[in-house]
Amino acid sequence: MEYLLREMEEYAVVHHVPIINVKGKAFLIETVAAKRPHRVLEIGTAIGYSSLLIAENSADDIQITTLELNEERAATARKFINHSRYSEQITILLGDAAVNIDTLQDVYDLVFIDAAKGQYLTYFNKILPHLAADGVVVADNVLFRGYVRSSEKPPRRYKTIVTRLKKYIEIVENHPEFETVIHEQGDGLAVSYRRKNIEKT
């Protein structure tokens, strides 16, 4: 598995595919390993790197549904995943995540959001009916290159993304159903625990 992950890291560098950075990876693994989820929804497959990280640290019967808009990336992800022992446990759904979420029937122990940054709040609201009572939502890149919590104005091309990510953080930090921790290392990883989960710990 380590060899496959290294191969994927090299592929991501060569082909300029964004995958979770080293510090974000550590927090993701820590969060997943503590939860040991059985059902996971991932929004944003890319090449399947995070899918495999999650699978490796989940319960043995893990089933992951991962959503990807880009057909070429989804095909690449499938090739990599097929070289792992999780090929039968990871399902890739191609298309607009905001549309595909509405078609889902399962309830998920953990949701990992790593797709269009300007759509995080939309994704969050749509997944709530599918999130277990003690579920966890993990969102990557919420500080977006440091702009989200900087006093300086972001470049114009990032203004909408930064504004929407600030709103996402505001909502999850003040949501009555969740307790949220923002890990600032890396590019910012927001981990939101549904409160039933907190009461148990």
From TrEMBL:
Keyword Transferase annotated: yes
InterPro entries: SAM-dependent_MTases_sf, SAM_O-MeTrfase, TrmR_methyltr
Enzyme class: transferase
Binding locations of S-adenosyl-L-methionine: I20, S50, E68, D96, A97, D114
Catalyzed reactions: 5-hydroxyuridine(34) in tRNA + S-adenosyl-L-methionine = 5-methoxyuridine(34) in tRNA + S-adenosyl-L-homocysteine + H(+)
One example of a Gene Ontology biological process annotation: tRNA methylation
Calcium among keywords: no
SUPFAM superfamilies membership: S-adenosyl-L-methionine-dependent methyltransferases
HAMAP family reported in the protein's UniProt record: TrmR_methyltr (MF_02217)
Subunit structure: Homodimer.
Functional description taken from the UniProt entry: Catalyzes the methylation of 5-hydroxyuridine (ho5U) to form 5-methoxyuridine (mo5U) at position 34 in tRNAs.
Family: Belongs to the class I-like SAM-binding methyltransferase superfamily. Cation-dependent O-methyltransferase family.
Protein name (record): tRNA 5-hydroxyuridine methyltransferase
UniProt source species: Propionispira arboris
